[in-house]
Write a structure and sequence with these properties.
- The chain is mainly α.
- The chain is about 35% helix and about 0% strand.
- Strands 1-2 form a two-stranded antiparallel sheet.
- The longest helix is centred in the C-terminal third of the chain and has 23 residues.
- The chain binds a DNA duplex through helix 3, helix 8, helix 9, helix 10 and helix 11.
Amino acid sequence: MPQLSSGGGDDLGANDEMISFKDEGEQEEKIQENAFTERDLADLKSSLVNESEINQSPNAAAVRRGQQSEQRGFPDKHREHLDGVSKQQDGGMYKSPAYPGYPFLMLPDPYLPNSSVSPSSNKVSVVQQSHGMHPLTSLLPYGNDHFSPSPPHLPTDMSQKTGVHRHQSQDLSGYYSLPPGGVGQITPSMSWQSQPVYPGLSPCGFRQSYSSNLPSASSYSRFPHSLMLGTSGMHPTGIPHPAIVPPTGKQDHDQYDRGMYVKPQEAKREKEPKKPVIKKPLNAFMLYMKEMRAKVIAECTLKESAAINQILGRRWHALTREEQAKYYELARKERQLHMQLYPTWSARDNYEAGLSGVAGEKSKADWGKKKRRKREKQQDSNTDNSL
DNA sequence: GGTCCTTTGAAGACT
DNA sequence: AGTCTTCAAAGGACC
């Protein structure tokens, strides 16, 4: 496996990459190890952005991320530099322009049987082989069956759909040709348990205000994990998918318990069958959160999601590029699968209506209120900054 | 019971 | 084209 910069330790710890964490007053951010992970992260993100948006507007994406990152203390003034550096250090991981598409297409696909390495896979092995199930197995709760190559129930020509403009997906047959448990082969370097992100320190780096006195004993048992996801969320095609929400009835996974169902009473009240709500596919960070939430809860005896998410956000930044790449790849596959399952779906479907009538009964007025609140909030912050 | 909080990323809406 | 906004998950806190 080509050595990535993470091991080099050179150029460690651009100081300003830690700004956002320092504000928290946490010691962990001072650890050097994090410094290089931060850098790696920047590299990864840059690479991912460059690759995934290569046909779009890399600059726009970079700008946007730059803005966001800046807010999050993830300075992008280094990004250009990092891009250049990463391409050199990657040993080829992202250097080849021969693959205008997603970078991971060059990677040995852990989803494939034998985890066969693509011809170009000598460039990287982001994924090492493991012997057991990958923790991320849980992130793809779909039954393995529907990962069979070229599911016959899927439209063969997705381009037939109209009204939705989506980039043409690549042939997914390879991506979803999974052996039983194949998804779980991704693995290995994901040893969060053995490699605490903030070694020597409490894994719980959250604001004091978020600390909880709640007992931790129940944390794990209570936590709904996607691993436990059953075959709920059945798509009309017969494909179970977590993104789809049946119009009636209760799915057996907590994932669908909240804000996604027509309540029984409502279901009765509404005789017209509601259109199943198809949720957005989860992005990389969401997948990561789902995977790691239980762990954080157990470690930190926290239950408050806001606090947990803060921790997860920091851990996400502390992940190495390889670790993050797995989630980005998973998210990409998730999107592709989602796209194939629901070719006419658009994120817009869940806009404005706010999943109206499903659970939240959000009205457009509510949506507008929320929008207004958010705007006001931003204005407030701007005002504060200007002072 | 509804909304907020809090995170990142994707995508649609808006300017 | 660039920026802004919403939504995705989660569950306690708050009104």
